Amino acid sequence: MATVFWDSCGMVLLDIMLKGKSVNANRYCETLERLRHAVQHKRPGLLRSGVVLQHDNATPHTAKRTKEWLERCRWDIIPHPAHSPDLAPSDFHLFGP
Known about the structure:
The longest helix has 18 residues, at 25-42. This protein has one domain: Nucleotidyltransferase, domain 5 (2-Layer Sandwich). The protein contains 5 helices and 4 strands. The two termini are 21 Å apart. The protein has helices at residues 25-42, 44-49, 59-62, 64-73, 89-95; strands spanning 2-7, 10-16, 52-53, 76-77. InterPro entries: RNaseH_sf, Transposase-MT_Hybrid, Transposase_1.
């Protein structure tokens, strides 16, 4: 499984998970921490202007630990309507039309 993060300038982080592993809140927060470090190195001004994250309503994304991590880092979340496959821009940007 691949988790991809990007901004208006391109891909910021590609996180690949080994076959047979699953995402839980701890693993997702580890990925967010890698994202935070990648943003600091690739787009240092971005953290000063704020991070706006869109993710779906999967359990690791809505877990208490994840919400606490996002609050601590002061990242804003764009609401994601339930069951909205049309809001998955990775499908287009990674694989093309």
